[in-house]
Write a structure and sequence with these properties.
The chain has 314 residues and is an alpha/beta fold. It has one domain (5-15, 34-309): Rossmann fold, CATH 3.40.50. The protein contains 10 helices and 8 strands. Helix 3 (95-105) links the parallel strand 3 (77-81) and strand 4 (108-113). The relative contact order is 0.16.
């Protein structure tokens, strides 16, 4: 299916701005552009509470988790890892999405501003993600008023981190998770897949751009590790049910499909949906791309279904 009209117009506008391609830019140049996109997206809905919490890492650094609490009694806590190739993006830029997710799911959403490469390369973002998961589990009552279920979610590189900490929670007998929501996740460092090589998929994220992200995030010698490429994990048994959203025009589509099949082979319940006419990045552009609303509808529907059958944490 052809790229939808709204995305086509956005791509045309971005190209007419004559900015440098991602793979020819420095990280700071790309980071500065995120604020402009946030202004186009606009603010999210009003909430009962929004507070920032500082978490300290074992090496003495700090990062922020933003807690977004909807009106009423939250039914769960969703720990959300934003996208941006482990290099760009922050919780301010994803705030509108987080607010919409909190409001529509009736869950507290904790947005993790994990440290970014190249200043903090792999495995620093993984360790931050794990630290935030343990913190969220230990503070469920504070975050949501009771021992509610815990969900991990994320888009793109954030989907990678969500998948990785879900695996680590099993291997380390860590927090029990009710669900993992993975939005066009990075699951493998293989950049020779069908979707990577398809010219129709070089839209908001290109193969060259994804190579740029990997080059900043992790050396080639470590990209095959399961905590960088979760598709390469030897054993996926025991993981929480998964909801996986994929974009038709996305270099990462093949590896997302492969991860869904690997989970199913390990007898993990999986719900997947391919959003036709959408490119990588659509989910994180609420109020800007109609596909974002459809994606959020699908995610919320499956979160609510999972919570109806989840057993509250003790």
């Amino acid at each position: 299916m052809a790229l939808d009209l709204a995305t086509s117009e956005l791509v045309a506008a971005m190209r007419s701005a004559d900015g440098k391609p991602l793979h020819e830019s420095q990280p700071e140049e790309v980071r500065q552009g995120g604020g402009m996109l946030s202004q186009m997206i606009g603010p999210g809905p009003d909430l009962h509470r929004s507070t920032d919490h500082s978490l300290k890492t074992p090496d003495g650094a700090e990062f922020t988790v933003r807690v977004l609490v909807p009106h009423g009694q939250p039914d769960a806590v969703i720990l959300y890892f934003h996208g941006g190739g482990w290099v760009t993006g922050n919780i301010d830029e994803w705030d509108t999405l987080g607010r919409q997710l909190a409001t529509r799911s009736n869950c507290t959403v904790a947005m993790v501003n994990y440290r970014k490469a190249p200043e903090f390369p792999y495995p620093s973002p993984v360790e931050d993600a794990w630290l935030s998961l343990v913190w969220a589990h230990e503070n469920l009552v504070t975050l949501a008023g009771g021992p509610v279920p815990l969900v991990v979610a994320g888009d793109s590189a954030g989907g990678n981190l969500a998948a990785v900490v879900a695996q680590r929670a099993v291997s380390r007998s860590g927090p029990e998770l009710a669900l993992q929501v993975l939005v066009y996740p990075v699951t493998d460092a293989d950049q020779t897949t069908v979707s990577y090589l398809d010219p129709e998929n070089q839209v908001l994220l290109t193969a060259e751009g994804m190579a740029w992200f990997w080059n900043h995030y992790a050396p080639e010698s470590r990209r095959g590790e399961p905590e960088a490429s979760p598709l390469r994990a030897v054993d996926l048994r025991g993981l929480p049910p998964a909801v996986i959203l994929l974009a038709e025009h996305d270099p990462l589509r093949t590896e997302g499909e492969a991860y869904a099949e690997a989970l199913r082979a390990a007898d993990i319940p999986v719900q997947t949906h391919l959003f036709e006419g959408q490119s990588h990045g659509f989910f994180s552009m609420p109020n800007l791309l109609p596909g974002a609303s459809a994606g959020l509808d699908y995610a919320v529907q499956n979160i609510r279904a999972a919570l109806e059958s989840a057993v509250p944490h003790a």
